[in-house]
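My current task is to audit a protein record that another person submitted. My question to you is simply how this chain folds and whether the tokens agree. This is what I was given:
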Amino acid sequence: MNPTRRPRRWGTAVSAGVAALALSAASLTTAQASTAHTPSEPSAATAADAVKAYVYGYPLVLARATEQLSTNVAEPDPGRLRAPVNQFAKADTTPDPRFHTVVAPNVDTLYTSAWLDLKNGPLLLHVPDTKGRYFMMPMLSGWTDVFASPGTRTTGSSAGDFAITGPGWHGRLPAGVKRIKAPTETAWILGRTQFDGPSDLPAVKALARHYTLEPLRDHGHHRPPPAGHVDPTVPDTPPAARVAAMDAQTFFSQLASAMATDAPAKKDAPMVAALARLGVTPGRPFDIDAKGPATAQALRQAVPAAQKRIKSALATTGTDVNGWRESLELGHYGTDYLLRATTAWQGLGANLPQDAVYPIARTDSRGRALTGAHRYVLHFAPGHTPPVSAFWSLTMYDPSGFLVPNPIKRYEIGHDVTPKPNRDGSMDIYLQHDAPAGKRSNWLPAPSGRFSVILRMYRPKPAALDGSWTPPGITVSR
């Protein structure tokens, strides 16, 4: 068994300390003077708090940026997976390399996405009978924790009706409607429906038409959804890139604003207190200079420092298994703010492990970065392909987490594209820039430079969750 290791948690910040000023300058010893801070220098404790504040707030700020871009349309846009607030965007095809709304998109399912504003009351979700087709409707809070996941695993494939209610809502629901309590006023449904290739597209689109959302107040009235509001000031920039480019004033202003709508959990009280010491208060305008030049400097320095910490943590998140990083703790993060931030950084909208597991490889079995300059093979021994109750796939990504353009427009293998087994029942998948001679059916095209791959396992069996099955290492082919 390979127990999942959590990434190293934040250590207790140790302040360098400032020597107390004596009544005369002569009483300040040389040793004391060496520990004193100039007025514009942050203490070690303040600097550490500022970095932790960025890491803590990153998923919320990224989710808000994603919501702003995804809802900034007058009507649903299937191609870009955008729709007005409280309406579904139903993809009519799988993502391709032009899709940059979220990082690490999958091409095994058709997305059905909606950003919910629950301040004005519950939203009613209807799902049809999928007749055994795998689907899930995971629901994420504004902080990106999964708080419910209706679907094949949890509620079956029969038709169902659910009411998503905001914090503190009290009222009555129609008969037969199951209540789902959201912890924040903002919620995100990122539904996925099994897609078995181009010939399956009409059937999946027909099914998706029966996924519906409506305000509880409109139940039984069949009112058409209102047109959305288009804000011309919202940049059409990939949300991750937009947040990465924010300076400290912008980032912490966004955080303070978002926290007013999506309140922190009670368990976050120590972090909220640290934010207050830095001048970040939910719902109040943020002024980076309000707490003095030392704090302002700490907040400015925190942006690159925290981004570096998040990116560095990607290499140690979860368990290292044959060159793969595998985490079985996604979706529910508790106070593991670094894990939540790294998950948002590399794949916003991650599912609970019971729904899907996502080992990711950036290196080969010997720890060397994957690059299109080499040719690789992923070898599954007979009877040892990924153990799943639904299906599995291997998807190729560039260093930014987006799909890789290639001449045969193949972005995954294992589900839509079924690799051919070897005579002994084993299976080889070839990861390389150029097509392998005579093995094109088992080829997953790679870019010329660095890349990563994600092995998705939908409805993983116990062996994939308890560590008795692990993905084989990626090796350089000879």
Observations:
- Residues 1-37 have pLDDT under 50 and may be disordered.
